[in-house]
Specification:
The complex is a heterotrimer of chains A (325), B (286) and C (481).
Chain A lengths: L24 H10 L5 H11 L6 H13 L1 E4 L7 H12 L13 E4 L4 H8 L5 E6 L9 H13 L4 E5 L2 H5 L3 H15 L3 E5 L2 H4 L2 H13 L4 E3 L11 H18 L4 E3 L7 H14 L12 E3 L2 H14 L12
Parallel strand pairs in A: 1-2, 1-8, 2-3, 3-4, 4-5, 5-6, 6-7
Helix pairs in contact in A: 2-11, 3-12, 3-13, 4-5, 6-8, 10-11, 11-12
Chain B lengths: L25 E5 L5 E6 L3 H20 L2 H17 L1 H12 L3 H21 L3 H5 L1 E2 L6 E9 L2 E5 L6 H12 L3 E5 L5 H12 L8 E4 L3 H10 L5 E3 L6 H11 L5 E3 L14 H4 L2 E9 L3
Parallel strand pairs in B: 5-6, 5-8, 6-7, 8-9
Antiparallel strand pairs in B: 1-2, 3-4, 4-10
Helix pairs in contact in B: 1-8, 2-4, 3-4, 4-6, 8-9
Chain C lengths: L19 E2 L1 E3 L2 E3 L6 E4 L6 E5 L4 H19 L4 H17 L1 H12 L3 H22 L15 E5 L5 H14 L3 E5 L6 H12 L7 E3 L4 H8 L6 E5 L2 H10 L6 E5 L5 E4 L5 H13 L11 E5 H15 L20 H16 L3 E4 L14 E4 L6 H4 L6 E7 L2 H9 L6 E5 L3 H10 L4 E4 L18 E2 L6 H4 L12
The chains are: A alpha/beta (325), B alpha/beta (286), C alpha/beta (481).
Amino acid sequence: MTPTASSTASTTSSHAVFDDIVRSDSSLRRFLHGLPGVDQVGCEARAAGLATRSIKTTSKAYAIDLAIRMVDLTTLEGQDTHGKVRALASKAMRPDPADPTCPATAAVCVYPDMVATAKQTLGDSGVNVAAVATAFPSGRAAMDIKLADTRDAVEAGADEIDMVIDRGAFLSGRYLDVFEEIAQVREACGDAHLKVIFETGELQTYDNVRRASWLAMMAGGHFIKTSTGKVQPAATLPVTLIMLEAVRDFREQTGQMIGVKPAGGIKTTKDAIKYLVMVNEICGEDWLDPDWFRFGASTLLNDLLMQRTKMTTGRYSGPDYFTLD
Amino acid sequence: MSRIDVRKTYKLYIGGQFPRSESGRSYVVNDAKGRLLANAAQASRKDARDAVVAARAAFGGWSGKTAYNRAQVVYRIAEVLEGRREQFEAELRAAEGVTPARARSYVDASIDRLVWYAGWADKITQVVGNANPVAGPYFNLSTPEPSGVIAVVAPRGPLLGLVSVVAPLIITGNTVVVIASQDNPLTAITLGEVMATSDLPGGVVNVLTGSQTEIAPWLASHMDVNGIDLTGVEDAELATELEVAAADNLKRVRRPAPDTDWLAEPGLDRMTQFLETKTVWHPIGV
Amino acid sequence: MTFEYAPAPESRAIVDIKPSYGLFINGEFVDGNGTSFKTVNPATEEVLAEVAEASDADVDEAVKAARRAYTRVWSRMSGAERAKYLYRIARIIQERGRELAVLESIDNGKPIKESRDVDVPIVAAHFFYYAGWADKLQYSGYGSTPLGVAGQVIPWNFPLMMLAWKIAPALACGNTVVLKPAETTPLTALLFAEICQQADLPPGVVNIVTGAGDTGRAIVSHPDVDKVAFTGSTEVGKAIARAVAGSDKKVTLELGGKAANIVFDDAPLDQAVEGIVNGIFFNQGHVCCAGSRLLVQESVADEVMARLKRRMATLRVGDPLDKNTDVGAINSAEQLAKIRELSEIGESEGAERWSAPCDLPANGYWFAPTVFTGVSQAHRIAREEIFGPVLSVLTFRTPSEAIEKANNTPFGLSAGVWTDKGSRILSMANRLRAGVVWANTFNKFDPTSPFGGYKESGYGREGGRHGLEGYLKNTEKGADA
């Protein structure tokens, strides 16, 4: 049987409680549009308020190590090579070669054709390989190609799949198509964890971000992720706030935890700590774990390392003392 | 043998009706030469209380009408007054002993004043309201709203002063309990007849006749009255007493001005003094 | 391991609190003739300084100085020149912003986050805004004739902000002032006096006299005061209205409130919860326009309460100077006693009390953020202003019931509405009898936005073009000042 994105009546959701909702486009639309609205100004004010938290000394040291452990160290360039990926994987395992107490990152994130290389380097280090699939970043391909892309990455050893949703379908209200696409990719993932990328910069409104979050959670995504990093704006604090509220409310309703991954544009320790404060205050400490929160980033890691060194040595460090990979 | 006149009984004007004073009292009103004109009802504190109840009951409906509608009603009062001008001129001549020309000029001015205020109904908001450019993503608008039930001590004189204090209050949506000039109460009740036949909802204007000293303190201390206009209070001690009593529920107070030149064009402040400014904020977002 | 935030205290070193303070009269600090009093840090009960009390004679001196400055200097100066003084003051406030914020938090107990990010920026903005009016009064719609000497009495909840709301428009319009800060929070007003010196403001234009009720009474009843502006309790407001009866004094009063914050079932719930929290726990609930009555639609009451309590549990109560503190200290022992008393009454009347779990410091005046459910309109905690971090929750079923309950109070200062339906917002905003209606937001302030109440919440407006009216003489023929 050739899987397609066309809607059939046999869709089921991650929880039986949602089965009636995902029966048709209209029932799905009624549900998603019945979620409480988001007031943009209030949401942004809340995010800005949390961003004024001042994290110092011991709490800062804790936050920096946690942030390092949450990084999906990412390279998603046309110019990527096996050498580049091997170097990145090495860095993920030992971010600060001079300091063995420095934790490893959560994963490296690469295109599917680089999965095998990354896996080879990482071995059983505990650092996962995440692969972007489903015609990343635009998501513009036939369904069978997206599924093949996914299976290919999983077969090559990917532990995690970062898929993109069909934003065109979402924005034109074909929610059931998006739902089924996620559900089918999830199935194709097998044991690999699925992160669902919304490309929030294209969804434009916070209401859409909230709806996309629920759609992905009901369809079986393990993580919801803001952006590909290829569209501006990528991750922002308010967008992440909406997604954190969604996973918090989803657990309230189903008992199930979903992870959140802001990606793109998070470059400094200061930024990362703001996100961790937000996780702490919106979702609570259960989510303060690489299993439930990740940063999709590349340059962030070096800033975390510089700040980490500053904390241990008491003096400011410089970029020359950290590897550029 | 000449025909016997059918004399008019002057009563109060409360809630659109013309009741006698519940106290059953009346007092003699003389003309300028001291001859009996008529008996006027002498309102009691209970009449004042009933008038406040009527004014409060009318407030929601009257203030909720469109400004255009209130303008039409007040303009209609002017029209009806114009139609009955001979009667008013006669009453003014009788009450004050003025010349026909003078009586005519007062009636003219009263009608013109009503027309002037009628036009303000749908403009005052534009003149005293504001869009406020706050430093943030918020829509912010300030608009005037009527204060509520206003008690008024009308100035001396039968008509022009009375029209000049009542019109600015009702045009903005307030409802009014007015104590007519003690010496010239009859025209006030005739004006009530004009208002009663001008589509003005009952209770928007309530006219009490009788003793200022007796009734005004009850209105000044009444906790369901939102403002008091002391324009016609000539006794400074009484004025202070009334202002003190008005503080019990923080009524908006307009202090006495018995010497006002009622023929001069008024400013806005008879309207604005009994307006509240409401400012509404709303975020601007998508 | 949990993510504990280490202490992040703002440095106190930036402020220099003197052991004692005099009165600021005619551009100089002078001794007072009353019995001096102590101002304490409500977070620690530490005595901060000894402050002079202005006697009747001191107040008279201050009024004389203000009158002289009015007649000889300030009323003769062009608006453009007055404006430059006000701009100068606004700039110095910005320059010394951190110092003002720290001092405000020490003397008042409010979190540094608020004094730094809300109070002080609004203070500077307020002076900046009214500075610009000084030479444009002829376009204001209220004429350009000042009243003379303004006597101003302000409360302890926003010491500096209330000072700005009083002094900036008064000076812009050409008046001179005698201002009394609250007895528990005089320090920032006295620092402001120093700022007036730094700005070379002509002596006597601003006079600051410290003291309690007697000093306030002396200002209000002084025969040479042309204008009285007061922010504070409705009870004192009424006493002032009585005291000025029969005089020519112009009066503006900004008094108490018991605002309804109305949440409909289609509200943006997460933002509504933030609005509820901001509405009642901002500044420890020491806010006259606080959203102290939550009216929540029955169909979402349980969900809103669950979200609210979860959110309240994350509020950080403690050291006002810690940058992460959300709720600071209650301003005084007296106020704490009043909050406790009314809360106990709430319980004894049968309402259900819930307080956020938080450790309160051993010293100082503290009250945990508290919410009462099962409150009815008949309860005292639904009618009286508690002026503390205590929320009373009532429910409603229809828009009309919400309006009825919201307006069922002698107050009328502010109100909140939360719904995603635009036409309903406008309908509610029309029917609410309150001077400020916040729709899908709460407790927002801006120099351009008029603020003030209906009914027993007072009269007159502060802020915006409307704020000029209270400081200008109506010169229209036959006008009542």
